[in-house]
Amino acid sequence: MSERANFGSRLGVILATAGSAVGLGNVWRFPYMAGQNGGAAFIVIYLFCVLMLGIPCMVSEFIIGRNAQANTARAYAHASGGNKFWTAVGAMGVITGFLITSYYAVISGWCLQYIYASGVGELKGDASYVKEYFNNFMTDPVLPLFWTVVFFAATHFIITRGVRGGIEKASKLLMPLLFVLLLVIVGASCMLPGAGKGIEFMLLPDFSKVDGNVCLGALGQSFYSLSIGMGCLCTYASYFSRETTLLKSAVQISLIDTLVAILAGLMIFPAAFSAGIEADAGPSLIFITLPTVFQQAFASMPFIGNIVALMFYALLALAALTSLISLHEVSTAFFHEELHIRRRWAATIVSVGCGIIGCCCSLSLGAWDGLQFFGMPLFDFFDYVTGQIFLPVGGFLTCLFIAWRMDRQVVRDQFTNWGTVSLGFYNVYLLLMKFVCPLAILAIFLHQMGVF
Ligand code: PFF
């Protein structure tokens, strides 16, 4: 156990895990959801979900991971005394991580193309041109694959350098850089004429929009944004030292994640309002609407507009990279420990395996559009299965595992660092794990399945 790799510092723990949490979900999904679902009212509900559900679930994954000092599959096996069902639950986390790694890298690769395109000024043109540019790029049989491979190469390079020399070092460099870029763009965006309306849109509460759907949306977003239910937090926690306070770390990581999400909104909406363009959802927001927004908002200073666009895509790529590293690590740790092979080889299996699946996902959006499952391109199918099914099911079972299956003394020891920190919220935490969190996750799941 003493030979196991670990993060070398508290800051390393926080930045690496926050790096996993801060990703594409913060930059495109959160601002849009906040904007459309009542602005500040949504943010308040979101904060409530993070506090009451996200943080406790994060602590649970930390407990399982640090207790076992092993990959996610083995961590569940360890804590359940080798029970087959619970081992399968852990393995499901690894499979989810593996599949998400594949298509997350494809979207990350798109950011690289857009860094290039903003740099050489290829994105200049009216809205329909930018739309066509994106569609042509996405359906191109070669270019997206090229960028996916480049992204995997970067991730692979970092992962093979190990936990401390790779993941921790990269996070300490990339996360501050991400923050600087974010603040610069927020500043530029908020100084545009008419930006105040965008800030209002994002921050003025409109409680009339709040209903059950909005609450479930906020809950789902908080889980995705905090990387819950996919084995990432469990794997990272297996590298935490005995001194890491789990609750405190979860609070700090969630604060960083939420701050980035709110700042992302303050980056996008002021510019969009200033340009008079309505910001819409998902990939089209980032890759179709925003290039036009930057162009029009900075029409009188096109050079600055170009730089802002370039910085934006660089920021997105950085956020995606730190998340992809954590996703990759879930499977790398699994192969490394279960196949008893060197870390380098384990990482190669993951990079090549996910690379091939990722390329198939990418091709399913264009050249191989016949590659469909249940009427969805492979890309959308993976997104659906992992995000809508595996994630809530995994999260739900994790709550039950901690609350009803795991040795209570082990949970308590992990929570209090073997009695060295106060019991504090321990009883509240247990109560949340026993009833509140599983019921809330069940509600999201049934909602997504269309049951109510
Ligand atoms: N939390 C990341 C985001 O907001 O983009 C996505 C993610 C990364 C989800 C890692 C799950 C995960 F394990």
How would you describe the overall organization of this protein?
The protein is mainly alpha-helical and 452 residues long. The protein is 77% helix and 1% strand. The protein contains 18 helices and two strands. The chain has helices spanning 10-21, 24-36, 40-68, 72-79, 84-120, 127-139, 143-159, 163-190, 195-203, 212-225, 232-237, 246-275, 282-297, 302-338, 343-363, 378-405, 408-415, 426-448; strands at residues 372-373, 376-377. Strands 1-2 form a two-stranded antiparallel sheet. Strand 1 (372-373) and strand 2 form a beta hairpin. Helix 5 (84-120) packs antiparallel against helix 14 and helix 6 packs across helix 13. It is globular. The protein starts with 9 loop residues before the first helix and ends with a helix. The mean pLDDT is 91. Bound molecules: 4-fluoro-L-phenylalanine.
